[in-house]
Every structure is written in C-alpha cells, then in structure tokens.
Design goal:
By secondary structure, the protein is α+β, with helices and mostly antiparallel strands. The chain has 22 helices and eleven strands. About 50% of the residues lie in helices and about 10% in strands. Bound molecules: adenosine-5'-triphosphate and magnesium ion.
Length: about 475
C-alpha cells in the first residue's frame, strides 16, 4: 500500500491572517479523530511516519496521532478503544482500520541500548518530537489545545517542525534528531531503522548520521531478535532491498545481525564478471517480487551455506542442505514464526532442483510431491530470482516445468494421502486389518503407485492393490 502514489500536498498558507495554517490531505477518518480530541479540549496532531509519508505523497500504512490527553482521557473520548501498552498508545478502530493515538511523551533511562525504562506522559509537542528518531519522522501537523471551544470554532492546523524535517524530506535525507551517536546508544534499533527507511523511501543517510552508525554498529548485538525481524521484514518490501542490505554491510550492522551473510562479500562466484557471492545474493533479492516476502527472505538466505560449503577446488559442497539449516537457525534467532522458518528452510533446501525435458508426467508428479504443492509456486519464483541474480535469462526449461506442473494441478491428480480414493479406515474395514503403522505403510505404497499412474486412483483398484500387497508381504 505504501507505494501507491497520492498527489503531493500543497504546503500553502490558507490566508495571510493565518499565515502558518497548513492544509494537508488526510483521510476523513483521521480528521474526525483530530476533531474529536480538539473538541474535547486537547491538542491533536498527526505525527511521525504517517505525516512524513503524506509530505512525500506516499500512502502511509498506518496513522499515528499524538495528543496532550492521557490514555484514560483518550479512552473516554473514544468509547470501545483499546489501551495497548506501557507507552500509552490507545488504538481506535474506524471503518475496519486501526489508528494509534499516543499521549505526548518523554523517554528516560535507556539502560540497555534498547527501550526506555521509564516514559513520562505530558510535556509539549516539541518534547514528544525530540524523542523521535529522524528529523523526517519528528514533525507534527495539527492544532494545540483550544483556549476554549466555542460552538462552531475550528482548529487552525499548523506544521510543527523543530528539527528541519521538511527540508530533509525535500532533500530526501535521513538525519538523526540531536546527536546521532547518543541517539543510537539510547536505542540501537534506530541504526537498522535508518537503513530500512533509506531503502524503502529511497533516501540517503546524512553523513554524520551514517558515520555514527559505523561507529556504533556493534551495539546492535543488544537488540532483541523480534525487533530486528520487524525492520528486516520491512526492508525486504523495498523496491530494491539491495540498497539497504549493502548499507547494512558497509556500516558493519550485517556482521552483527547476520554474521553468516557478512561472510559472502569477497567469496568468488563465477556468474557475473567482477561480482562476488554477495552481489549475486543481492541481485536475487531485488529480482524477487516485493509482494512475496517469503521468496525475498529465501532469496536473501538461499546461498547462506556457500562460504562454509566452499571446498578447496572452488565448489560448494551440499550448500543447499547446509544453507537450509543455517537459514532456519538465523530466522529462529529472530523469533520469526515457526511456519515461516519452515517454509524458508524448505525453499533453501530445494532451490537447486533440476529438470530434464524428458521427464515423464509421473516424474513431474514425483517432483511435485517431493516439493509439496503449497511450496511449488514460491520455489519457482525463487529459482527465477536466483537465475536473474546470476545474469541468466529466463529459462525455457523452467517455464516448461511450470506449465507441466500447472497441467497436473488442473487435472486434479492425487499427490498426497488425503487425495487417495481410500483412507486408513477403508483399509481396516474392507480388508479386516488391525489398526497400526502397517496401514500407513500400505497407504504410502498406494500413493507411490498413484503418483506413477493416476488412473489407479479409484477405490476398487486401490483395495485390490492393497490386498495383493498384503499377500506379497505374508
Ligand atoms: P513506517 O512507514 O514503515 O510505518 P515509521 O517511521 O512510521 O515507518 P513506525 O515503526 O510506524 O515507523 O514508527 C512510528 C514513529 O515512531 C516513527 O516515525 C518515529 O517518529 C517514531 N519511532 C519509531 N521507532 C522509534 C525509535 N526506535 N526511536 C525513536 N523514535 C521511533
Ligand atoms: Mg508507521
């Protein structure tokens, strides 16, 4: 959603008398929330990344509001809203979307380079902006608390920009608010956010901020896997994640966060002249579609095993299997959901699959069964990305295999036990078997036979085959 362009707003004064009033085009739901807070006697602003995105004519993927009302008061103004966390954020649902309203806040006591240990509500809007990470994220648009809300009075909304955020939006620069090294020492995640925002927004990191990241990169070791994973996931949605991944490497963040990937630069790869394994990985990530997060993640990790698997004669022995384990270990450290870890593991493990034009339909079905139906599409996408990363043009063989797989799927052929025309209960009942593991073994053999010849998949045939399997075994 973030990359759908919306018209660039005009920052023109409304009238000479209200010289600083600024009109921005924000959704009606957001204006209504601001109006409710203001009519309740409170300051109310759109703030942070959502305002930055409005100024960039990007559609924000979430809306953050801030106010001088305390959480209890916000809840009072929005019945049914949810008080979320110790940072005071209240979530309000409107028309299926969620809006986050957070009281003005000052953060204190950053003891472990992660989160503040004490937050204090209150202060002025400028204090709230000062705790934020980058100048472009440290602006607010809205109105201060009304002196008194007369019937029919309207708030005059202005842009509050104490750190030069609009100028940095125009120059497309990420600049830390305040002294960058101190800000990264407070919370090391800001360094990874800088890289992620540079990639997703197509911004440059301002030199002093970049130098501070280089100097403080080792502090990223204090971060929790979950917080790193959120930023990595967002980085991988960029049009060209390579921009951020190169920054990760050049700043030293990659060596801290993903040491195995940091081994890739300099490892030779005889694919594109003058390029190494890291260049290949980055090309593959960029080539995967941005709306395929699992494929992008798998592309990033598909050759993670290569440096370790490099033999003396320059081959990569078993790098797919080694890499699958390493990828799973890396994602587990980031506490990525188990389902994603497994999916990426399998994609990395299978990414070296081969295909010959002389495969029979049964061979195509065996391949489908081996990969698993739900993983096929992503595996093909990964191979396309891997090829693109090696400078290999679209391969006719791969296109043909995709077509043949689609044909088999269309024909509804059986590839799993669930699709067999008999199940364990049928065997037990019809052949008077006692339940046990031998029933499963017969079913597996029947499935093998059906994958080889789909015409066998009807009940009487399979029961007959099971019967003769039993006789052969006895
Ligand atoms: P996105 O467009 O991806 O949502 P964002 O900048 O809005 O990017 P969020 O994680 O939604 O990122 O954070 C909202 C705002 O909160 C930021 O714009 C910034 O002002 C502030 N913020 C978030 N994380 C930090 C942090 N670690 N340190 C300081 N301020 C932060
Ligand atoms: Mg946001």
């Amino acid at each position: 959603m973030a990359d759908v362009p919306v018209p660039r707003p005009k920052l023109t004064p409304q009238s000479a008398r209200e010289a600083t009033a600024v009109e921005l085009h924000v959704p009606k739901a957001v204006l209504d929330l601001l109006d409710t807070l203001w009519a309740g006697g409170h300051a109310a602003y759109v703030v942070g990344g959502s305002l930055r995105d409005v100024l960039l004519a990007r559609r924000p993927h979430d809306w953050d509001l801030t106010t001088d009302a305390l959480p209890e008061r916000i809840q009072e103004l929005f019945p049914g809203s949810n008080y979320e966390n110790k940072f005071g954020t209240v979530a309000v649902r409107r028309g299926g979307d969620e809006y986050e309203i957070t009281p003005f806040r000052v953060d204190h006591d950053y003891a472990d380079h992660r989160r503040p240990h004490r937050v204090e509500f209150g202060g002025a809007i400028e204090d709230d902006l000062a705790r934020r990470d980058f100048t472009v994220n440290a602006m607010a648009w809205g109105a201060p608390a009304p002196d008194d809300v007369a019937a029919g009075s309207r708030p005059i909304r202005t842009l509050v920009d104490p750190f030069g955020g609009t100028a940095d939006v125009d120059a497309r620069l990420l600049r830390a608010v305040g002294e960058p090294t101190r800000r990264f020492e407070e919370d090391a995640l800001r360094m990874i956010r800088a890289v992620r925002l540079a990639a997703t927004l197509d911004f440059t990191i301002e030199p002093a901020t970049l130098a501070a990241i280089r100097g403080s990169a080792s502090l990223a070791a204090h971060l929790s896997g979950e917080r790193i994973a959120i930023e990595l996931e967002r980085l991988l949605t960029a049009e060209r994640p390579s921009v951020g991944l190169r920054l990760m490497h050049e700043t030293g963040l990659l060596a801290v966060v993903a040491p195995d990937l940091a081994e890739q630069p300099g490892v030779p790869q005889n694919k594109i002249a003058g390029e190494d394994l890291w260049d290949h990985t980055l090309r593959a990530v960029d080539a995967a579609a941005s709306d395929r997060p699992a494929v992008r993640l798998a592309a990033l990790l598909h050759d993670i095993g290569k440096p370790q698997a490099l033999t003396e004669d320059g081959h990569f022995f078993d790098h797919d299997r080694v890499g699958a384990e390493m990828a799973a270990a890396f994602l587990s450290r980031l506490h990525v959901p188990r389902s994603v870890v497994d999916r990426v593991h399998d994609l990395v493990e299978q990414h070296m699959f081969s295909y010959e034009a002389n495969w029979s339909d049964a061979a195509v079905r065996r391949f489908m069964n081996r990969v698993g139906i739900s993983a096929l599409d992503e595996l093909f996408e990964l191979r396309e990305a891997d090829n693109a990363g090696s400078g290999i043009p679209r391969q006719a063989g791969l296109t043909e295999l995709r077509r043949r797989v689609a044909e088999q799927l269309e024909a509804g052929v059986a590839l799993s036990l669930r699709q067999l025309a008999v199940n364990g209960d049928d065997l037990i009942r019809e052949l008077r078997l006692t339940p046990g593991p031998h029933v499963g073994r017969i079913l597996d053999d029947l499935l093998d036979a059906v994958i080889a010849d789909s015409a066998l998949n009807d009940r009487p045939t399979l029961l007959l085959m099971a019967q003769s399997m039993l006789e052969d075994a006895s």
